[in-house]
Amino acid sequence: MFDSEMQAKWTSRFVVLLVLSFAAALASDTELRKYEPDISYVEDGERRFGYDAGLLELSDAKRVADAMRQIYGDAGFPLVFKMPEVDGFFLVSSFADDHGIEDFGRRFFLLHADDRGLNGVFRGAGMGDSYILRPTFYTGAGKVLALAETGTEYSWGLQAYEFADGTLVDLGALDVALWSGDNHVNPLERASVSFGTAGYRVEFPYDLTLAPGGLYQWNLPRLSDTITFTQENGRFVLSDDSVGNQACFFFLGEPDGEDATEVLADLLYYYEKLIPWFEDHDVAFSYQSDPPLRMVAAGDDKIMVGKEELKLELGIVLMAKDGRRKILYGVHTDVDLIHELESFLGEQIGQSPLSPEDMAFKSAADGG
């Protein structure tokens, strides 16, 4: 009797531990391996192309470049990559097969090699004015993800593609870049990518710029160890814990006349003066001139401030991380704005340690 009871207890415990271990394995994400292509360039008569010398022999790269020209016409200086950890599939970044103003620019093609030769199996959307479409690959957990940088003289961000069932699936954009001090650059240098039951997760261990160079550019501070993008409805979105307090300066339209130009200059002057304070206190900041103003939102949410909500054409929209909003109109000095920000954000204000200069600035603002 004793032996059977003990055996039943140990069996029950073993089953519980097995279930918990299985559940933990399902819940945990698998970090994917990063592969950065090593691009070499070839000029051989009429052939001009680049290829990943890390995974491709030159003879195979020539064969793919020739097939691109035969299938899609003038290949527009293609870049040829082998899909890592997948046999017989080649990714090509090229200007070929332009469809006019609605669909132009560098795009991805996927070619498959079989007994009959190379065949095109995927043609992606054109990247418009971007002349960069340069992939970094992440593999593991049975997945192949390509995060491709777009841009011109500076990085515009990333376009995500997953290799699945013999084709590419467009997962949309991660409109982020890293500010190097001189320019916006590819943000993937120290990023990590993982895959789990909720899909892909991309983590950046530094502050980022959202929509770099665009009308709705934001400087986004890192509120914890990383700024994180997760998948929601098949697209990459900011995680809740990556969105915090925000300040959006605005002057709608173009200044009309000398007085308006001076007012805009004053607004931008105080905006620039407050940037160090925003950075020290983990406040995202932006300057925008085209309504609706776009605030930073987590998930699939879109937070817009329309022209009908704005009583004047210039001011600042403050938004706390709990969603509260306040609009200040006109031009305010940096000292006045710090008072307003501290009063509005209260305990939600960033807890970054104050520098001696910031302490002196705050003392002046408090009348000390």
Briefly characterize the structure.
The protein has 368 residues and is an alpha+beta fold. Helices cover 23% and strands 37% of the residues.
Query: How confident overall, as mean pLDDT?
Result: 89
Low-confidence stretches: 14-26
Classify the helix fraction into a percent range.
10-25%
Instruction: Give the strand content.
Output: 35-45%
**Radius of gyration, in angstroms, nearest whole number:** 26 Å
Instruction: Please count the beta strands (DSSP E, at least 2 residues each).
Output: 26
**Overall tally of domains:** 2
Class by alpha and beta content: alpha+beta
| Spatial ordering of strands, largest sheet | 3-4-5-6-7-8
End-to-end Cα distance: 81 Å
Summarize the biggest pleated sheet.
6 strands, mixed
Layout of strands and helices, then pairs:
Elements lengths: L1 H26 L2 E2 L1 E3 L3 E6 L2 E6 L5 H15 L6 E4 L6 E6 L12 E8 L2 E7 L8 E9 L2 E9 L3 E10 L2 E8 L1 E4 L4 E2 L6 E5 L2 E6 L3 E3 L7 E3 L6 E6 L2 E4 L7 E6 L6 H23 L3 E5 L4 E2 L9 E2 L8 E6 L5 E5 L4 H12 L10 H10 L3
Parallel strand pairs: 4-5, 21-22
Antiparallel strand pairs: 1-15, 2-9, 3-4, 5-6, 6-7, 7-8, 9-10, 10-11, 11-12, 13-14, 13-17, 15-16, 16-19, 17-18, 19-20, 21-25, 23-24, 25-26
Helix pairs in contact: 4-5
